[in-house]
Design a protein that fits this description.
InterPro entries: BilS (IPR054633), Flavodoxin/NO_synth (IPR008254), Flavodoxin_CS (IPR001226), Flavoprotein-like_sf (IPR029039), Protoporphyrinogen_IX_DH (IPR052200). This protein has two domains: about 1-115 and about 150-170, Flavodoxin domain (Rossmann fold); about 115-150, no CATH class. The protein is about 45% helix and about 25% strand. It has helices at about 15-25, 60-70, 85-100, 120-130, 135-145, 155-170, and strands spanning about 1-5, 30-35, 45-55, 55-60, 75-80, 105-115. Strands 1, 2, 3, 4, 5 and 6 form a six-stranded mixed sheet that branches. Helix 1 (about 15-25) crosses helix 6 (about 155-170) and helix 4 (about 120-130) packs antiparallel against helix 5. The mean pLDDT is about 90.
Length: about 170
């Protein structure tokens, strides 16, 4: 059995989770950041695909890969700035899973909070100066501050446990 962990990472969040998942895979494996080298997915039994959330779905780089995966066992993982609010995370997972062709078997989907790009935080700070009473902007900035420490050690541990659990049924 052979697995590949492929991921796209803008701020390093998804890379951290990719490395944790890679570490937890107990058999022959490779890890590749998209754009670093060509990938032949056909060489692998299991594809583990990592993304960062862009406007409520996965980034375009990983979307292109997901659309081309066929007849594989697939694990999906991602990071986003928002804290887990249950329903929001579930909708993101659902949107992304719908991208994957139906002839694949999804072994699991992991999503966790990651730090937010400082440029976006700076934009919100400017917006708050212009609109000091805007509760939505204040909430966004509060979330940005909370997100700064993620992915943290607990997120890394959860990613490893997710991997072990997702692979449990296929490792005999």
């Amino acid at each position: 059995m052979k697995a590949i962990v492929i991921y796209s990472s803008l701020t390093g969040n998804t890379k951290k989770i990719a490395e944790a998942i890679y570490e937890a895979i107990p058999f022959n494996k490779d890890i590749i950041k998209l754009g670093e080298k060509d990938i032949n997915i056909e060489e692998y039994d299991i594809v583990v695909a990592g993304y960062w959330v862009d406007k409520g779905t996965c980034d375009d780089k990983i979307k292109d890969i997901l659309e081309k995966i066929n007849n594989k066992e697939v694990m999906i993982f991602g990071t986003l700035g928002a804290a887990d609010k249950g329903e929001y995370y579930d909708k993101i997972k659902e949107r992304i899973e719908e991208i994957l062709p139906e002839n694949n078997k999804i072994l699991g989907h992991f999503l966790c909070q990651g730090k937010i790009n400082e440029k976006l935080t700076d934009r919100y700070k400017v917006m708050l100066k212009e609109n000091p009473d805007d509760i939505h902007i204040k909430e966004q900035l509060k979330n940005h501050m909370e997100a700064k420490s993620h992915p943290d050690e607990k997120d890394i541990k959860n990613a490893k446990e997710f991997t072990e659990n997702a692979l449990r049924n296929i490792i005999k």
